[in-house]
Amino acid sequence: MSALSIKNVWIEYGAQVVLERVSLEIEAGAFVAIVGPSGCGKTSFLRLLLGQESPARGTILLDGKPMPSEPGPDRGVVFQRYSVFPHLTVLGNVLLGPELEASPILGRTFGKCRRQLVERARVLLTEVGLGDSLDKYPTQLSGGMQQRLALVQALIRQPRVLLLDEPFGALDPGIRGEIHVLMKKLWKETGVTIVMVTHDLREAFLLGTRVVVFDRLRNRPEEKQRYGATISQNIEVHRRRVPGQDFHERIAEDSDRDDPVAVETTRRDDPATTH
Ligand SMILES: Nc1ncnc2c1ncn2[C@@H]1O[C@H](COP(=O)(O)OP(=O)(O)OP(=O)(O)O)[C@@H](O)[C@H]1O
């Protein structure tokens, strides 16, 4: 069963059609990278999956059931701009979401429940290299560290789907390489389904198991309002394992390269995505 089943979805803002006829099956555990020109509706699509927008037409199923029309713990999100709270420590930032969920009025857990939560937070923070920074505040962290914190904030709630909106766009290339390795590791370990918007094609092919291209098929000035973007390509990415080389080394090596990552792709002629 697909984790997300998107059928003939349209997004409209007033008279402006932003997306039209978007159909996409995203299998559980996939890592889907979405690319497309600026303004074609990529962020709007993510907001739809998060539950911040409703489709003008069409349906979205999450694990076979209609997707709740509000954001919930089953969907985590990380934005390009750091979404951490400046007045809370690293640990406080990670605990806030689960504590509010467990205790909406007090926003705080106690006893065994809290100890277990703190332990889970510690394990995850250590995994992303923030184990020594639990008591620091976000202003004391670099951009890359803040994004790693934002990832833990989302993952601690064990979402079924993780939505990433250009999460690494503001980072320096070297830091980006490191966080790509980490992202891939976290994805493999958690098995979470990921949908990531990126402007960086290389990043899309490096991380994605599928690269989906949104584009406007009608682009004349008089057509801009009435016609939206849709999926123009849906590409499956196959990676060959290099004997004797472990997965992380391979990605780290790819991250250092300036030329496009060597991958094999197949165009997916899924009836759901054929227009
Ligand atoms: N809440 C809104 N109300 C009205 N129009 C909106 C709203 N949100 C987005 N739009 C419009 O929808 C279109 C798509 O915007 P969106 O941010 O989804 O594109 P994008 O592909 O993510 O762009 P970029 O790559 O530049 O971030 C734009 O024309 C934008 O102005």
Give a topology summary.
Blueprint: E1 2-13, E2 16-27, E3 31-35, H1 42-50, E4 57-62, E5 65-66, E6 75-78, H2 90-102, H3 111-127, H4 143-155, E7 161-165, H5 173-190, E8 193-197, H6 201-207, E9 210-216, E10 229-238, H7 247-256, E11 264-267
Parallel strand pairs: 3-8, 3-9, 6-7, 7-8
Antiparallel strand pairs: 1-2, 1-4, 4-5, 9-10, 10-11
This protein binds adenosine-5'-triphosphate.
What do you see in this structure?
Helix content is 32%, strand content 26%. By secondary structure, it is α/β, with parallel strands linked by helices. The chain folds into two domains: 188 residues, 3-Layer(aba) Sandwich (Rossmann fold), CATH 3.40.50.300; 73 residues, no CATH class. The strands form two sheets. It has a seven-stranded mixed β-sheet, with helices on both faces. Strands 2-1-4-5 form a four-stranded antiparallel β-sheet, with helices on one face. The longest helix has 18 residues. The radius of gyration is 19 Å and the shape is globular. The two termini are 22 Å apart. The C terminus is likely disordered. Adenosine-5'-triphosphate (ATP) binds next to helix 1.
